[in-house]
Specification:
With 322 residues, this protein is an alpha/beta fold. Helices cover 26% and strands 27% of the residues.
C-alpha cells in the first residue's frame, strides 16, 4: 500500500510517499481503506521532532512511528473474528495512535459508523479536534447550561468544535479570534466574538465561568482577571516557539502560577474512546456540529500541509485525501 513514511525528523526531507506493507488484520481489529485523514499540531510536533523533551517518546535519533496520523475516515475492508457491529463496505471514521496517513489502517475500538450527512473529508476532520473540545468542556471544564464560556482560539481545529459544542451544552459562548475569522466564529453560533487584534479580552467587562484556552496566548494573571472566583480554566495548547519544552512550558507556567487560587486550572491530553465518538456522531447527524475545513491536500502533499498548519493560521481543519 502507499503510505507516508516518516524516516527522519524534519519537514524538508523527513517524509516520503512510498510502498509499505499493508497492516495485518487482528482478531479484534478492523481493516479500513482510508479515504481521508487530517493533520493536527501533534503530527506537526512529531514530524519536526519537537519539543526535545518529548524525544524519548517520539524517538531519540529517528521516529518510532513509521506512518504518522491520528484521524481517519474510510470504508471497512475486513473485520476480525471478535468484531461485531461492523462489516465490509461500511463507511466509518475514528482515531488511532498512528498510521492513518496511508491507504490502509488496522484499528481496534476507536472506530464508529460515519454519519451519512458527512463526506469522508468532513468526517476525517472530526476526531482529534472534536474529542479534545468535548473532553475539555464536558469532562475537565464541567460545563453546565447557562454558564458564560470563553473560547480563546475559537477559529482553529479545536476551537471551531468547541464553540459549537458549548452552544449544544446550553452555554453563552464568547469566541476570541483574529479579524478575518470573526464572521466564521459568529456563524458557528458564538453569542459574542472578540477580535484580539482590536480588543484585549483579558481587560473586558465580562466574567466567565469556564475558559477553554486553545491558543495559549495569555498568562495566568491576565486570564484570571476575567474569571469568576469559582471558575475553571482548561489549558489545551500553548506556543510552539520553545524548542525544548514546546507548549509544555506555557502549561507548566499556568499550573504553577495558579497554585492557591480559588479558580481551578486543568491541563489534559485528549484520549480517543468509542463512547465519545458515538456522542459526536449523534451531534453531527443532528446538525448541531459541523466540521470546518480550511484546506485539502493530497497525500503526497503532506509536508506542505504540515508547513501550513505550523504557521498557526488555519481556519478549522486541514484535511488530507488518500
Amino acid at each position: 500500500m502507499k503510505a507516508i513514511a516518516h524516516h527522519r525528523f524534519g519537514l524538508r526531507d523527513g517524509l516520503e510517499l512510498r510502498e509499505v506493507d499493508t497492516p495485518a488484520l487482528t482478531d479484534d481489529g478492523v481493516l479500513v481503506r482510508v479515504r481521508a485523514s487530517s493533520v493536527n499540531p501533534a503530527e506537526w510536533f512529531a514530524v519536526v521532532g519537537r519539543p526535545y523533551l518529548a524525544r524519548p517518546a517520539m524517538g531519540l535519533r529517528r521516529p518510532k512511528d513509521l506512518v504518522p496520523g491520528a484521524d481517519f475516515a474510510g470504508t471497512v475492508e475486513a473485520v476480525g473474528g471478535a468484531v461485531t457491529g461492523l462489516r465490509p463496505g461500511d463507511a466509518v471514521f475514528g482515531g488511532s495512535g498512528s498510521g492513518t496517513l496511508a491507504e490502509y489502517l488496522c484499528v481496534r475500538e476507536t472506530v464508529v459508523p460515519k454519519p451519512a450527512n458527512l463526506s469522508f473529508e468532513q468526517a476525517a476532520a472530526v476526531p482529534t479536534g472534536a474529542v479534545t473540545a468535548l473532553q475539555g468542556l464536558r469532562d475537565k471544564g464541567r460545563i453546565r447550561p447557562g454558564q458564560a464560556v470563553l473560547i480563546n482560539g475559537a477559529s482553529g481545529g479545536v476551537g471551531t468544535f468547541a464553540v459549537q459544542l458549548a452552544k449544544a451544552f446550553g452555554a453563552e459562548v464568547t469566541g476570541v479570534c483574529s479579524t478575518r475569522n470573526v464572521e466564521l466564529v459568529r456563524s458557528l453560533g458564538a453569542d459574542h466574538v472578540i477580535d484580539y487584534t482590536r480588543e484585549d479580552f483579558t481587560r473586558g467587562g465580562r466574567r466567565y465561568d469556564l475558559l477553554l484556552d486553545v491558543a495559549g496566548s495569555r498568562s495566568w494573571p491576565e486570564c484570571r482577571r476575567v474569571l469568576h472566583r469559582d471558575a475553571t480554566l482548561v489549558v489545551v495548547g500553548g506556543p510552539k516557539t520553545n524548542r525544548w519544552l514546546g507548549p509544555l512550558g506555557h502549561v507548566a507556567g499556568m499550573l504553577l502560577a495558579s497554585r492557591g487560587a480559588s479558580q481551578r486550572v486543568v491541563f489534559f491530553i485528549a484520549k480517543f474512546n468509542r463512547q465519545d465518538l458515538v456522542v459526536l456522531s449523534e451531534l453531527l447527524e443532528a446538525g448541531k456540529v459541523t466540521p470546518v475545513i480550511d484546506r485539502q491536500y493530497a497525500l503526497r502533499e503532506l509536508p506542505e500541509a504540515l508547513r501550513y498548519l505550523g504557521e498557526g493560521h488555519a481556519r478549522g481543519k486541514v484535511v488530507i485525501t488518500v
